[in-house]
Amino acid sequence: MDVDRNYNPKSIEPKWQTRWEQDGLYHADIDPSRPKHYALTMLPYPSGDLHIGHWYAMVPSDARARFMRMRGYNVLFPIGFDAFGLPAENAAIQRGIHPKEWTYANIARMRVQLKSMGAMFDWRREAISSDPKYYKWTQWFFVKLYEHDLAYQKEGMVDWCPTCNTTLAREQVWGEDRHCERCGTPVIRKNLKQWFFRITRYADELLDFSHIDWPERVIASQTNWIKRSEGAMVIFRTEAGEAMEVFTTRPDTLWGATFMVLAPEHPLVEKVTTAEQKALVEDYVYQALRQSDIQREAVDKEKTGVFTGGYAINPVNQARIPIWIADYVVMTYGTGAIMAVPAHDKRDFDFALKYGLPILPVIAHPDQLVKSRVLFESVEAGFEDGLRDHQIPFEKQTTAWNITIPYHKIDAYLHLAQTSVRSGHWVEIVGAQWVFVFPHHIMTWDSVESGEQIFARMCALKPEVRQWRTLMEMLWSEEFYRDALYHHAYGTMINSGELTGTPGEEAVKRVIAWLEEKGIGESKVSYRLRDWLISRQRYWGAPIPIVYCPNCGVVPVPLEDLPVLLPDDVEWLPTGESPLKLHPTWKYTQCPHCGAEAERETDTMDTFMCSSWYHLRYLSPDYDQGPFDQKEYDYWMPVDTYTGGVEHANMHLIYTRFFHKAGRDMGIMRGPEPMLQLRNQGIILGEDSEKMSKSRGNVVAPDELVDNYGADTVRAYLMFFARWDQGGPWNSSGIEGTARWIRRVWNLFTEEAQPGRPAEALLRQLRRKVHQTLKQVTHDFEHFEFNTIVSALMELLNTMYDAREQGACGTPAWHEALDIYLRMMAPLTPHIAEELWQRLGKPYSIHQQPWPIVDEAATQEELITLVVQVNGRVRDRVMVPANIDEQAAKQMALDSPAVQRNLAGKTPRSVIYVPGKLVNIVV
RNA sequence: GGGGCGGUGGCGGAACAGGCAGACGCAGGGGACUUAAAAUCCUCCGGUGGCAACACCUUGUGGGUUCGAUUCCCACCCGCCCCACCA
């Protein structure tokens, strides 16, 4: 019977898992004597099978949590299930299983799979969001939010998925064709009464990341999502005198407005449209709405629009400008109306061009001015000198000069270009919209000459200009647009009445002050973030605890009546209505206030609501006096380390921050943020480098891997095969290397070896390697660099095999190496570490041992390889004592035969010495 | 269009307060042990030239700074991801 001799994960893994569970080894309880560490990994949705991606997210999180525990922290590492949601209901419709049954069967199965991972989850704290004891408190939070005016009801257009039969949050609508995140069906828009949370009230605070250590990409993504724009609200008036509010980030360009654009659904459209234009406008509005109703084709995004026949008066200069409608203006941002400044905005420009609307005047010109690029081959002698003479800054590149021309030197430069640029080529001037230089012909475009006139002249000069569909297309191409208008757009104001001459840096501020003084506008901040729509017309979710009473109106269900239980007996009919609405009795109830016959809200809550506070439910999943036990909260919160997928950046990770801040303001939670440190893992792709999916047949099944290799090997491989934060394609042969490592560890620890009489140096070397590895592994654990932990351990193992070969067995250094090795392995591969620990005769459990301490002195090298370079090229390497002094090192280098050969008699000009590293001889 | 991430051998990846590029592993070649296989062990393994010592080239491209650049700076190319008529 060799079961004992050979590495057999199938016997040791279940054995230890059972033992740990029996002993409650991973129970985390309040212990004020130790520092706490709340390690949280995103809870899974119980889809039925634990995916390799779950392992990839959770295993390193577990290893990190275990590491923190060994470092003396009281570590809480809980798990649960985000159990409400659409797939359960879809399964019900497709297979006739009750969502509850489907969900709980999946949970039972995934629990077993999760346990096979050998993670240190404290299962006593498991929380399942679809349990009444959980969603009771989700509903409680809803009522609290309602009481604090953070939840409100609003009728409005919502995105609706016709397949899932439910409203979607904006974040759940994807792609240019606006399809449903889950099923891919293009969404339609519906007018419904819906519940919202006032997340926008927290927009500014959500933009403040100063209290948290989160990845740059998540911060960037959230910042972009919330998108704060500062600008002005300006009141234009229609000719009839009706106010028409416009939001702009560029009030300094007000004088350049040549037309106005309303969103097709804007309420003023009807009022400004003239009789002649009525038919046209109505047709366009109908088309636009139909488009969003049926399906927005991805196709080309050429702007379309129609003239309403109405005019507005620009309050800054009384200019009378036409009002158009166009679908490039959306009702949901700003005011749904814009002033169009074609000279300074690409979109307005495109639109003006297409419909022949005026483009000028330009009302700011760049202060920094012009960049020019001139090819070497195009110039005569003297050009470069000329640049120097005029003190025009330039940079000489491989094939061209890049020249930056200060505004006041433009004339000098134009003259220079005229005289020294060879004919047949042209000098491109980028960055100034009104200057073009052709060989020997320089033209300027100012507000007098029209684009058509310039185009005609240019065509005459240079026939190929004709091939551009329009001059404008060329003008606005690439650098022209990028440099000139948009980025350098803040320039000295021109053509702007009494504000002409205002410098670019102050333009916006001054114009706003001026507008406020005149009473025609005011400073205003806009956000892209919208309030969070939480109503779902579905069954499998937490019912919104609201009752509609004919007498009292909207009445929240009293806290003592919670939870509003989901009925079990529902039918799924493809009606598009919530099954709760169709239930014969459920919705009928009495008003909690007056006792009158009343009806319940039949919508349920977005599951992101449930997952916004699960980290709190973990603290006390059975607690019935509140959403969580205050004692637990005080000890454990906030979450110290949160791990999970970056795809939640704009949804869950914003919602949960909002939830926390709202809770804080309601006096329920405390502190600025719920999760202090966030780390994201990458995505594992299939072996074909494609996203894993059943239809592609490239899915890696963790159960199968565990069956073949054991959980420890799978764990180690997941940490080793790629950078954790990056992920990458799976490689099924790669796991062999990790399996080999585990077996070699096993063999080293279990084989009989003869103690020898090793040299002192060998043992010092062994200790050095052990402590160097420990130092690195400690560092890497702290920084979530798991792949190098495994490779460092592999390296150390190789060293230990060599040392054993040379008789290191039986010595104190050897025993120390074995001891430290297992402690370092324990977080990564908990089962084999425990097994070998026991076999060494050490006390149970290795997972209760402290993390070893680095012996700094032992890590110091005695001998180093001194690299000897001549002119920066490596010519020799010499072994020298680590403490060699500069003099000796340099001498050693100069004496090297290889150096002598390479010097070839030349005298060194200088000798550079980098202590402990190298000597570089410069000749 | 905006934002983010990345580009190093056949592959995954190491090394970046500037100092031996390619750790560790996979795949591959050669060998040992086996009747054989598995397992294990030894050995080679970026490219070109050379019997060899050795030389030259090589971290997406082109420049720059430096005694010295995968690492810092400038310009560009390519790939992936997220957001997007957001005024």
**Beta-strand residue percentage:** 15-25%
How many H/I helices?
31
Spans with pLDDT under 50 lasting ≥5 residues?
Answer: 293-300, 423-452, 464-488
Helical fraction: 25-40%
- Overall morphology: flat
Write down how many β-strands occur, each being a DSSP E stretch of 2 or more residues. Answer: 39
Mean pLDDT: 84
- Gyration radius (Cα, Å) is 36 Å
Distance between the termini: 70 Å
The biggest beta sheet is recorded as: 7 strands, mixed
Structural class: alpha+beta
Keywords:
923 residues; alpha+beta; four-stranded parallel sheet; RNA-binding
How would you portray this structure in words?
It is a single chain. Helix 23 packs across helix 24 (735-750) and helix 25 packs parallel to helix 27. This protein is 37% helix and 20% strand. It contains 31 helices and 39 strands. With 923 residues, the protein is of the alpha+beta class. The strands form 12 sheets. Strands 10, 11, 12, 13, 14, 15 and 24 form a 7-stranded mixed beta sheet that branches. A 4-stranded parallel beta sheet has the order 2-1-32-33, with helices on one face. The radius of gyration is 36 Å and the shape is flat. The structure holds one RNA strand of 87 nucleotides.
